[in-house]
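FORM 12-B: Structure-to-Sequence Request
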C-alpha cells in the first residue's frame, strides 16, 4: 500500500519548513494554515448538525472540510445523520435503518436548534457530494457500518460515479470507529485517504499505530488522549493526526499547541481567527 510511504515522505518534507508552514495539506485561497479546520457535522455550533444550513455556514466560515456522518435508509439510500436513531435531531422516532428515504426526508431536522431552521431536512449523501465537492473538503464518517452490511461498496460507487475515488489534495477522506470497515474501504478506494477514529488509549501503542498505518493515512483521536508524544508517534508511523471534538476556545488552543494536523470542531472560528 502507498499509505505509509507517501505520508511519511510528506512529513519529512514538512520538517524542512518553519512551524507556521508545516501544514500537511491545509491550503485555502493562497493562505498557509497550521492545521486543517474541519467543521464537525458542519458548523454545528451555529446551525443544526448535518444539515445544509450547517454545511453552508461552514463554507461561509472558510473551513477546510465539512465532516459528515453517513448511514443507510431501509430502502438502501445513503443519508447524512449522526445518531442511529432520529429521535434527538428530528420530531420523528425510530432507527435510521428502519425508515425509508421518503420517511427520513419528511422529518424536520432543524427546528430543535431554533425556529429559524425549521424545515431543514436530513440530506442525502449524493446531495452533499454534488453541492459541496469543489467548494470544501469532505470528511466522510461511516457511522456504525456494522448495521449496514455492504455500505462501503455503496459509498465507493457514489464516489466513483463522480470521479472522486481519486481526490485531489486529499479533499475526500473517509473515517470510522470500525477498523474492519476502514480496511475494506481502503481496498475498495485505495487512492482515498483513510482515517481511524478512537477515544481509547489502547489504540495509541506503537504496535497499534504501526498496524493502523498499513491501511490508514489518519489517526483521529479524541482530544482527551492527545499528547505531544502521541502526535510525534503518529507522525513517525507515517500518518497524520486529526483530533475531535472542539467546543471551547481552550480546547482549540490546546490542540494547536500539540501541533496536530487537523482540528475537528463545532466552531470553525475557534480554529481560524479570520472568521
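FORM 12-B RESPONSE
SEQUENCE OUT:
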Amino acid at each position: 500500500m502507498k499509505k505509509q510511504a507517501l505520508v511519511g515522505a510528506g512529513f519529512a518534507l514538512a520538517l524542512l519548513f518553519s512551524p507556521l508552514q508545516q501544514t500537511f495539506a491545509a491550503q485555502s485561497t493562497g493562505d498557509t494554515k497550521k492545521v486543517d479546520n474541519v467543521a464537525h457535522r458542519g458548523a454545528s455550533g451555529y446551525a443544526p448538525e448535518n444539515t445544509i444550513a450547517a454545511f453552508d455556514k461552514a463554507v461561509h466560515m472558510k473551513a477546510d472540510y465539512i465532516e459528515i456522518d453517513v448511514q443507510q435508509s431501509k430502502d438502501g439510500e445513503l443519508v447524512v445523520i449522526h445518531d442511529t436513531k432520529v429521535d434527538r435531531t428530528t420530531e420523528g422516532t425510530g432507527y435510521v435503518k428502519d425508515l425509508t428515504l421518503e420517511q427520513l426526508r419528511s422529518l424536520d431536522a432543524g427546528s430543535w436548534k431554533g425556529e429559524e431552521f425549521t424545515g431543514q431536512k436530513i440530506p442525502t449523501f449524493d446531495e452533499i457530494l454534488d453541492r459541496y465537492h469543489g467548494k470544501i473538503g469532505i470528511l466522510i464518517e461511516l457511522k456504525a457500518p456494522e448495521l449496514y452490511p455492504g455500505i462501503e461498496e455503496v459509498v465507493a460507487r457514489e464516489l466513483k460515479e463522480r470521479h472522486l475515488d481519486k481526490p485531489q489534495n486529499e479533499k475526500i477522506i473517509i473515517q470510522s470507529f470500525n477498523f474492519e470497515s476502514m480496511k475494506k474501504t481502503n481496498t475498495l478506494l485505495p487512492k482515498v485517504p483513510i482515517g481511524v477514529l478512537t477515544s481509547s488509549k489502547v489504540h495509541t501503542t506503537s504496535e497499534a499505530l504501526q498496524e493502523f498505518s498499513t491501511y490508514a493515512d489518519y489517526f483521529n483521536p479524541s482530544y482527551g488522549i492527545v499528547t505531544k508524544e502521541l502526535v510525534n508517534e503518529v507522525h513517525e508511523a507515517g500518518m497524520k493526526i486529526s483530533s475531535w471534538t472542539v467546543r471551547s476556545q481552550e480546547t482549540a488552543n490546546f490542540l494547536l499547541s500539540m501541533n496536530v494536523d487537523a482540528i475537528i470542531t463545532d466552531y470553525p472560528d475557534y480554529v481560524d481567527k479570520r472568521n
